[in-house]
User: What shape does this take?
Amino acid sequence: MKEEEQIINKVANSALITFNLEDYYQPGERILLDIKDQLYQGLMLREKEFRDFIKNQDWSQYKDKFVAITCSTDAIVPTWAYMLVAIALQPFAKKTIFGSLAELEIDNFRSALAEIDWPAFKDAKIVIKGCSKVDVPVAIYVDVANHLKPYANSLMFGEPCSTVPLYKKPRG
Assistant: This one.
């Protein structure tokens, strides 16, 4: 009887570390809070009316949500107005930023990446996983490459079975 050859999974047995950005996604609802409807004639903010809005708004509806505060019209909005909204949201929202939903997502990922011990990747061969069940902003891929390059022996992008080389540490 002929001895059957054993199939060896070279990818599983390699020293490659897969860096999956999906692991750093913060689940939760994202909300864009646009204050344009609080403007007088859509042009400017009136302090008294805005403070009444802040006082009478049900901020609890933002409980445990990620909130991006913005004004989508080209209007005169003083900085303190955004600060008042942030203060009103603070007891309820998981996170509040000024900006777009895209900026909120980048901020969420950057907060999670700030907790990583990057030197732990010293001399590692790393694949930054490309496919994800969540939408990872390109800015975050750039951030991760910048964080890992000083430590990694090599960086690749994609899947362990099909990668694009990004960086290889010079020898010597």
Remarks:
- The first strand starts at residue 16 and ends at 19.
- Strands lie at 16-19, 30-34, 66-70, 95-98, 125-129, 154-159, 162-168.
- The radius of gyration is 23 Å.
